[in-house]
Amino acid sequence: MTNVNGKVAFVTGGGQGIGEAISRRLANDGFKVAVADYNLETATKVAESIQAAGHEAIAVKVDVADRDAVFAAVKEAKEQLGGFDVIVNNAGLGPQTPFDTIDYDTYRRVYDVNVGGTYWGIQAATEAFKELGHGGKIINASSQAGQVGNPGLGVYSGTKFAIRGITQVAARDLAPLGITVNAYCPGIVKTPMMNDIAQKTADEAGKPFEWGMEQFAQNITLKRLSEPEDVAACVSYLAGPDSDYMTGQALLIDGGMVFN
User: Fold this and answer.
1) pLDDT exceeds 60 at position 96
2) What protein family does this chain belong to (predicted)?
3) Of 10, 17, 167, 256, which sits most exposed with the smallest number of CB within 10 A?
């Protein structure tokens, strides 16, 4: 991979799960990383461990549903790290929502975080790129559930389909500024949230935790759930120079759940 030392990457939801893995991978790639999260404590732990490994990182508190907060966080990262080159709009919510359980508050909160956070991240990053006089990379979190509707995920799947559309429009609109916009589409990833779902599935069936995990892995071609690092490797490609001629795409990194 071509050296990216000195470039700055901003990762929302960077304090845990996939976002943590992305933050660590980009730091290893040579980026200075802003670990942005609603939970400043977890973001700080990740940033400090990245620093301990010999890389440059800071923790930034942000509520991605709040437009002004996103702009402020991007400005803070740009000033502290001396630049701004890549944003990864990773933060998101994924509650199970059978249609008869969906209420206004759930709908509003998930759309504000997943879709609103993507809009505000795109806007804030574009402003930063313009101020710095160069292009950049915008990377959005969609999902395999944004490629094929998933049972019981009416709200989440809706947001992830929306993010694919937003990615395509932004890619067209921002190309004249030298900005590329792509998305990544994870499948079922081993995160604390996924572990909770698997445990609940197992408990309801009177089975052990491992059985619960197997139920989700059996329809994956590679027969295993994704590690967060699998997704981070895909984002690494999108953040680096090897993807410079790619824009408007949504890359599936799901172990073979959806085939296009």
Assistant:
1) yes
2) Belongs to the short-chain dehydrogenases/reductases (SDR) family.
3) 256
